[in-house]
Amino acid sequence: MYQVKTYNAIAQAGLNTFTQNYTLNQSEHPDAYLIRSVNLHQQTLPESLKVIVRAGAGVNNVPVDQATANGTAVFNTPGSNANAVKELVIALLIISSRNLMAATSYSAKHTEADVSQRTEHDKTKFNGTELLGKTLAVIGLGHVGSLVANAALTLGMNVIGYDPYLSADAAWNIAKQVQRAATLKDAVKHADYVTVHVPKNEDTLNLIGPDELAAMPAGANLFNYSRIGIVNNAAAVAALDAHHLTHYYTDFGEPQLANRDDVTVTPHIGGSTIEAEVNGATQAAKTIMTYLETGNVKSAINLPDLTVPFNAAYRFTVIHDNVPNMVSQITSKLAAANLNIATMANAAKHQTAYTIIDVDALDHQNSQQLITALNAIPAVTRVRLIANA
């Protein structure tokens, strides 16, 4: 029986995904955390914890280094809220082009008897533009960016994409009409609208700064629905003050953005739809079950991808440092236990490596002795034994 601890309000459809081999919130020694926004940085992770899955895109609230040191795999649910973010960005593109924020604010303030005559006289103040034929630069063409790019094409926009890390799989999801830029500045230099959809890391922090804003044509509109810090907000405010940037839309507020007519801040609602919450919770539950029951890894934050068909009776998984001579040390322990290896695979990601070993026969005494021997290897972080159900 596997124990799962949940934090935050997890969609019931996701919780219903767990099979009868899982219990929820009934143990102080959980095998898994299923979380959304809870901040785990001030917590000590229990030794029993084998996997953390966040039902959402980012993992800024997860102490990834601490988890790795604890032998805990960390996953998110990429793409689960991509459509929700896409729809909000497309909505804001239309709102921006038609000056709907200012127009509705005007209407709310003028409700007197002659409102029809007044609005007929004043409505030209809110003349907008059409998106048809305008240029949208999409920075980052992953789960969200590719959907935004494709949707903008259907609106008749010219779309230019920039993503130096675009994978072959992701490229299949992007319409061929999306033009590819060689550099970020090339992508934005003719853009009427610029939208950013990249993960937050050392390479993307302040990705849109003074130089990138200066490369945009005067009058451009900027959207940040990725993470706070991707856009240098101080630089964006300076560009707004200089009337180089027309409007800035973001999901991440800061005091310097408050009380400005040329800034629209939404309260971190990009991925907040009922459907996205269900998608994230369901994907998270499936990820937990796959990892706990098979040890297979796909798109973990802190472990390499390693997926091996589980055809043997038993499987050992070993998280260890990515240092020389580890495979030979591990296999020598199995040889000493007189075990024949049916299948073996190894992969590494940065400083962490992961090894899967399948065996056909194993008795209880041998298994406990072998786990102890493997854990005694200095560079080993966690050893698991999984029986094939």
Automatic annotation (TrEMBL):
It comes from Lactiplantibacillus xiangfangensis. Catalyzes the reversible oxidation of 3-phospho-D-glycerate to 3-phosphonooxypyruvate, the first step of the phosphorylated L-serine biosynthesis pathway. Also catalyzes the reversible oxidation of 2-hydroxyglutarate to 2-oxoglutarate. Pathway: Amino-acid biosynthesis; L-serine biosynthesis; L-serine from 3-phospho-D-glycerate: step 1/3. One of its GO terms (molecular function) is NAD binding. This is D-3-phosphoglycerate dehydrogenase. Gene3D superfamilies: 3.30.70.260, NAD(P)-binding Rossmann-like Domain. It catalyses: (2R)-3-phosphoglycerate + NAD(+) = 3-phosphooxypyruvate + NADH + H(+); (R)-2-hydroxyglutarate + NAD(+) = 2-oxoglutarate + NADH + H(+). Transmembrane segments: none annotated. Belongs to the D-isomer specific 2-hydroxyacid dehydrogenase family. Signal peptide: none annotated. Coiled coil: none annotated. Its EC number is 1.1.1.399, 1.1.1.95.
